[in-house]
Specification:
Helices cover about 25% and strands about 25% of the residues. It has five helices and seven strands, in the order E-E-E-H-E-H-E-H-H-E-E-H. A seven-stranded mixed β-sheet has the order 3-1-2-4-5-6-7. Helix 1 runs parallel beside helix 2. The longest helix has 13 residues. The chain is globular, with a radius of gyration of 15 Å. About 40% of the residues are buried.
Length: about 170
Amino acid sequence: MQLRIAGRVGESIVDGPGIRYALFVQGCPHHCEGCHNPETWSFDGGELIDTDTLFEEITSDPLLDGVTYSGGEPFCQCAALAELSDKIRAFKGFPLNIISYTGFTFEELVDKSTIDNGYMELLKRLDILVDGRFVLAQRTLELPFRGSENQRYIDVQASLRSGVAVEVSPF
């Protein structure tokens, strides 16, 4: 399966805890004022890449602690990211956690989830979700791995079990 991506960083220390493979998807419907990656907004830009190629890149680096999906909006490409996540989860070489950023809230994703959009299928495969649109008026440099105060760092599996967003600390 193919993903439309804006880029990737093989070893990032700013896109979640530890050393992470950061994947920036192409296409975003939110268009937040002050967005860090406005070049990812167009759904026609970027490049197409196969999930097998990404999996090989990710699993070839034994230093990685995890993978981060950013954007653009990862939840606009749920099927391909769920497939990539399954490959990562099945890899026996070393355990990697999976984080995704989204401009949606956890509640929006759960409430609006359908078979067609695949929101729940991607959520089920994530460890952490950083949710909420970037709000320029609430911009902060004090919260780890978040750009504005409204954004939450959520334990996805605990949240799915309890039915409410369970916030956790990144450290």
